[in-house]
């Protein structure tokens, strides 16, 4: 006998009225979760987020994207001034960005060189993106430049990434086909010295050990005096995994990675409308 399909209505039916009344903090991944398939923020979602803030809640976008990229998406929702950016390497509070940790330049040079040589030897359409708190640097142009610019709007092209002298909070690796090969051939050799995080099919991030969205969320919860029972998290990919351990109320979208589906308390059938339905329920519960 087949099980009934999961719908937004069925998810809400599983939530007892008032179950979300104590929520104070709502944290959501962006690409593949809160954003539409065209990677934009629907105006209706922005309106609901503004209602959450007006109701006294804190809403925090959490993404592998740079802070500037997230801020562009929320340009029409100016009440949002707190972000978890760069997969936890940057925490923005009240518009002020700070790095949670940095990478040693010698390590960055070694990683960049390995990524460069792998792309050349294997004919990969891939590159490294060296990221600071506010800026990022690449050696490429064309399609790779365009893809990097989607997530790092303050992007500069340089002759050699080794020439970057700013503090480095992350090295992002983009492959226009899939990062699976570079994960297997290169990043596995750096995993004992740094945090390696898959951010989607085409992106992997390398940050200092222990830097995750989950760690940034714990830091933020401590600053706000908010606990897991007062936190809602939405997500879909492996870079969201640690966040799910910090929230009693966790929601994964249907296409989420199996490990995310395993730990999520609730599953949503799609992006946008089901996420909006949960936000509406939060608003109903906190105002009851």
Automatic annotation (TrEMBL):
Signal peptide: none
Any GO MF annotation of the entry: magnesium ion binding
Superkingdom in the source lineage: Bacteria
Pfam families named in the record: Hydrolase_3 (PF08282)
GO cellular component: a single term: cytosol
InterPro entries: HAD-like_sf (IPR036412), HAD-SF_hydro_IIB (IPR006379), HAD_sf (IPR023214)
NCBIfam families given in the database record: HAD-SF-IIB
Protein name per the record: HAD family phosphatase
Organism: Nocardioides oleivorans
């Amino acid at each position: 006998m087949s099980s009934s399909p999961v719908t937004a209505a069925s998810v809400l039916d599983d939530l007892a009225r008032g179950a979300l009344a104590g929520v104070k903090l709502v944290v959501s991944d962006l690409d593949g979760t809160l954003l539409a398939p065209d990677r934009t923020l629907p105006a209706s979602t922005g309106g609901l987020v503004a209602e959450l803030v007006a109701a006294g809640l804190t809403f925090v976008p959490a993404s592998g994207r740079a802070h500037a990229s997230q801020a562009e998406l929320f340009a029409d929702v100016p009440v949002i001034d707190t972000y978890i950016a760069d997969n936890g390497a940057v925490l923005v509070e009240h518009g002020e960005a700070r790095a949670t940790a940095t990478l040693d330049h010698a390590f960055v040079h070694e990683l960049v060189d390995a990524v460069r040589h792998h792309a050349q030897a294997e004919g990969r359409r891939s590159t490294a993106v060296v990221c600071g708190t506010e800026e990022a640097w690449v050696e490429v142009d064309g399609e790779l430049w365009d893809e990097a610019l989607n997530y790092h709007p303050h992007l500069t092209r340089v002759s050699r990434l080794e020439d970057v002298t700013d503090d480095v909070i992350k090295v992002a690796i983009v492959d226009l086909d899939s990062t699976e090969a570079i994960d297997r051939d290169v990043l596995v050799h750096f995993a004992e010295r740094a945090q390696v995080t898959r951010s989607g099919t085409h992106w992997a991030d390398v940050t200092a050990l222990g830097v995750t969205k989950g760690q940034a969320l714990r830091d933020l919860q401590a600053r706000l005096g908010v606990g897991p029972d007062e936190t809602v998290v939405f997500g879909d990919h492996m870079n969201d995994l640690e966040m799910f351990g910090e929230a009693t109320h966790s929601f994964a979208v249907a296409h989420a990675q199996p490990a995310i589906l395993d730990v999520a308390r609730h599953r949503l059938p799609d992006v946008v409308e089901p996420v909006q339905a949960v936000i509406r329920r939060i608003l109903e519960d906190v105002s009851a």
